[in-house]
Amino acid sequence: MHLGIARSSFYYWHATAADRAARREADARLATRIRAVYQESDGTYGVPRITAELRDDGERVNRN
User: Fold this and answer.
1) Is the whole model's pTM more than 0.85, yes or no?
2) Which residue among 1, 32, 47, 49 is buried most deeply as judged by most CB within 10 Å?
3) How distant, in Å, are the alpha carbons of 30, 34, 53 from that of 40?
4) What is the pLDDT averaged over residues 15-40?
5) For 9, which DSSP code?
């Protein structure tokens, strides 16, 4: 334990790196889409309307 963590934890972290990267990319695409919906509404849409708009477009999102 040179790093102060268990070897299995390191290998788990290493094995799941691609999944974490994919999630970051998906989150970035969703954030871009959220900004676009907000700007298209001239800043009048709040969370409920943005969520509804995204769902209407086929996005799988929750209210958060």
Assistant:
1) no
2) 49
3) 15, 10, 11
4) 96
5) H
